[in-house]
Every structure is written in structure tokens, then in C-alpha cells.
Specification:
The chain is mainly α and 189 residues long. The protein is 74% helix and 0% strand.
């Protein structure tokens, strides 16, 4: 087992070492295939070129915005929909759950999604990235299952004390559900 794991470690680690060595090597040495594990013709021209390109910082900013806003957006929609689907008194709950589940197995595909976004006039906007990933059925199923594990007595006690549905959800249920919120945040992030 030790020999197998050592070979596996080398196979996984070598591409990482090569990329690091190539980033510190001269372009000619990389193109001629002289770089294996250690840098050849050490220089920082690649980093200089990379960080003087204004599009690099724009890309980092966009990635941060899409990640943070997309995670918050997905978390809000997922937690609210999961709570709704966990309610036993929701009419047509099984039919709605079937429709959600159906979309997990049969998606539209890349070209129909592109055509939809184009027809909605969202090309080259932030919405073209955020809206398609705004809701995850899998995360909703996980949240719904977690909600179903919360004792019903908690809701009954809140309603006896005069808490509305919104107060119960935001002030009582969500603090109880911090483990699943953290898990969904990590997955979506």
C-alpha cells in the first residue's frame, strides 16, 4: 500500500511541480522541453506579463463577485425552497418535488441554455452567469431533508408564543440549521 500511495503521490504532484517550474523558466526552455521539475533559465517574465495585463485583475474581480453573489443568491433560494418543500401541508408537494427532480436528470443542454440567455437579452451581463446557477435542486433536497429532521415541536412552540411563519423561519429555524447552511455554502462556493 505504501508503494502504491507513493507512486500515486508522484503522479499527482509532478504536474503541479512542472507548472511551478515552467512559470519561473524562460519561454524558450519550456517550448524546447527542457523543463521537468526545476526551473531552467530562471526569470519572472511570465509573471510580469501576466500582472501588467489589466484583464487579469478584471478576471479576478469578476470571479470574486460571481462567487460571493452567486453563493448568497443560491443559498437564499435553496433555503427558502427547501423549507417550503419540507412542509407537510404544501398542496401537490409530491408533484412539485417530481418536477424539481426531473430537472436534475434531464437538463436542456448547452445550446438551448445559450439560446435562452440570448433571447432574454442577457448576453455579456452578470445575469448570464448568476441566473443559471441561482438554484440547485440537489442542495434544495439536502436542505429539505435537514428541515424534516427538525422536531415539529419547535414550530408548535413558536406558534403558541405568537411567532408568524416568517419569524419562525428567520429567527428560529435558520439558526438551528447553521450546519446545513455552512455545508451548502461550501458546496456552492
Amino acid at each position: 500500500i505504501g508503494i502504491f500511495l507513493t507512486v500515486f503521490l508522484i503522479l499527482v504532484l509532478y504536474p503541479c511541480l512542472f507548472v511551478i517550474a515552467a512559470s519561473f523558466s524562460s519561454g524558450g526552455a519550456v517550448q524546447s522541453g527542457q523543463v521537468y521539475v526545476w526551473p531552467v533559465g530562471f526569470n519572472l517574465n511570465g509573471y510580469d506579463t501576466c500582472f501588467h495585463n489589466p484583464n487579469i485583475l478584471t478576471g479576478f474581480r469578476n470571479s470574486a463577485v460571481y462567487t460571493v453573489v452567486g453563493t448568497v443568491w443560491n443559498l437564499c433560494l435553496t433555503m427558502m425552497c427547501g423549507y417550503t418543500m419540507a412542509r407537510k401541508d404544501l398542496p401537490f408537494r409530491n408533484a412539485i418535488m417530481f418536477l424539481f427532480s426531473f430537472t436534475m436528470f434531464f437538463g436542456g443542454g448547452l445550446i438551448p441554455t445559450y439560446l435562452l440567455i440570448s433571447d432574454l437579452g442577457m448576453l455579456n451581463t452578470i445575469w448570464a452567469i448568476l441566473l443559471p446557477g441561482a438554484f440547485s435542486v440537489w442542495n434544495m433536497i439536502i436542505a429539505r431533508t435537514y428541515y424534516q429532521g427538525v422536531p415539529r415541536d419547535l414550530e408548535e412552540a413558536a406558534s403558541i408564543d405568537g411567532a408568524s411563519e416568517m419569524v419562525y423561519f428567520f429567527k428560529i429555524l435558520l439558526p438551528v440549521c447553521t450546519p446545513i447552511i455552512a455545508t451548502i455554502c461550501m458546496w456552492q462556493f
